[in-house]
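Reposting from the mailing list since nobody answered there.

I have sequence plus structure tokens for a pair of proteins and want to know whether others read the tokens the same way I do. The first protein:
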Amino acid sequence: PSFISALPVSRMPLIGETVGMGAHEAEEHWKGLFSTVWGRVSVRQVGESPVSGRLRSRRVGALTFNHVRFGNQRFERQQAETRATGEPFFALTFPCHGAARCRIGDQNGHLLPNRVYLLNNDVDAAFETDSDYLSFNVRIPADMIYGYFGREVRMIDRVVSRDDPVFRVLEKVIVEMVGAGDRFTVREADFMTAQLVGLATFYLQNSGRAPTLDLTCDAARSRILRFIDGNYMHDLTPMGIARQCGVSRSYLYKLFSDGPPIMERVRRRRLRAAREMIERGGGMLVHALLPGRER
């Protein structure tokens, strides 16, 4: 994608690289580095050349932007390992150079330049490349994507269309967040996050010729779902959610009229949190996730 050349990569902190390391040291070092991006992984060498890698990363609000180069390796990760080490996520991925083979759940594919991919990392996954592979990706919390595509999605991809107006706006938002993210207030970062997620999901779902109203609705839905994700343990009501997210109650109902109602989404989020707490041995605290009546 053309915007990659405009990215202020030098402003993204260098997390680490394998330059100058022996084969075993490089493999172990890269395994540790890559685990900070993908959760705990297993790494092994592919081909005769040693494992190599270089990672730059920057977090802005709920999103993490990664500029990663690696080669001659295969890495795998189990769903349980992702959930044990952090929040499930999707990777909005823009391959820049080289190619990689991947398996996301039961779906196989290739990651190639001039395409954009949305990869579910809340399932078992494996990646392999026997050459030099360069990619830019955005790590997005899974709950922000499930609201658009549901929980069964594994991998979505689309050819990059540089003439597409939605993709051009998406490019600008990404470049702005990477370059100026450290100057954003929390509210600004949340707004930009909603714009990025709304644009990316619309671009992957549709032809890319989006009415302004559709983009506004997508951004509002994303903002509301993020609010629920961060406040489900409180006594939420439709009026309270609408007020906190800057919309009317009638518009709130309209935004979610094509799927589960807003309070059903709150209930499902609480049940999922309770289930996860029980799995971690915190069953005695589950009542804390079930506050008072919902109006």
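The second protein, same order (residues first, tokens after):
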Amino acid sequence: LRNQHNMDADAAAQDNSHSASLHPLWNVVFPPQDMGVSDHFSRDAAALYGVAYSSRGDNLGIDVLHDWFVNRSCIRVPSACRFSSAGYFNAFPAAYWSKWTRVHCVVLRLRLSNEARVTVWQSNSRAQSMTVASQLYPAGSVVVTVDIASLQEGGWLWFEVEAEEKPVIISDAAWCSDTNPVRETKVSLAITTMNKPDWCIRQFKLIAQYADMRLINRIIVVDQGTQHVEDAPDFEELSTALDARVNIIHQANIGGSGGFSRGMFEVLQQRESDYVMLLDDDTVIEPESISRAVA
């Protein structure tokens, strides 16, 4: 028993050491409760983040899935239920990473609050799905390694967690790699607006609370209206939260293309960013998409 205990401790130490050396490529996230203009919007958006199933395989619907979300990085799966990350934001585009980067092997990393079965799925270029790995894990860290070298022509990865007798909280899930990034990149955001200051403020809140600000140089707002963004409540507070990255530019209304052109021009003039991301004022940004776009 003593030898077995020591072996288990050594294995856990190796897993923790391996996990610490990994670089997240694709964080598994869940929608902020305040991401939309209403609770109804947030519930509808739940379908983009995964699927809730019963143990029999019945789809329980987006209202049930929405109620499972705990916070940005956690989801609580009731007993005898299963969560699948096969959604627009949480499935991992393995073929893209295999074909266009030096990454040929990825690691699924997550934490479980209780015992649960973790299954990793893979699709191919013919839209066929197959199981990569499936195992019952105790509470704690889970690390699953997947070779993606053969997926260059097409294929996604996703995982499922099925709770056993007790509910399980899944936290801090991410698809990772031990390959060092080739370079550090930065992006500026260019938002074109006209008389929608409240919508811009909502964008600022999402970015300030949930985006990786280390990747963002500037947030340039091309304001073509008469209801100015800087006059809106909370602007000063959010500008401070965004470390004064917000630059407001006023110009006559020359349409969306005119606003976006001005935004791109300003980014080029500043010579700070590798990329510019163009946003309408009335979009609802998923902040994690900024990290993925510049990865």
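Reply #1 (J.P.):
I read it the same way you do. Confidence is low (pLDDT under 50) at residues 1-14.
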